[in-house]
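Appendix C reproduces, verbatim, an entry submitted by the partner laboratory led by Prof. M.T., so that reviewers can inspect both the input and the predicted structure.
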Amino acid sequence: QVQLVESGGGLVQAGGSLRLSCAASGRTFNNNAMGWFRQAPGKEREFVARITRTGGSTNYKDSVKGRFTISIDNAKNTVYLQMNSLKPEDTAVYYCAAGAVGSYVYWGQGTQVTVSS
């Protein structure tokens, strides 16, 4: 079992920055991929970014490339999402996930990100 706890969400003006954190505990060694997803009101949950524990391979949603950066500190079992140049359309609840690439098993409770125009 893996527990994921997100933090770092909040309210920011367009063009601002936030850094989300996701602290993992439990049997984390079985989960090579860590990802961030988001869900805006009235929309389906969508992929934002992911990173692998071994090798640090990353992948991003096209609309966040160049603005968001995912990173991982394996010693702290924590994954980060640095979000720069935020836009109102980035407003959503952001969720951390753990599992295999394309198959996430564990999910956090989510953290709200609101970007005002």
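The CA atoms of residues 88 and 115 lie 5 Å apart. Additional entries are available on request from the coordinating office.
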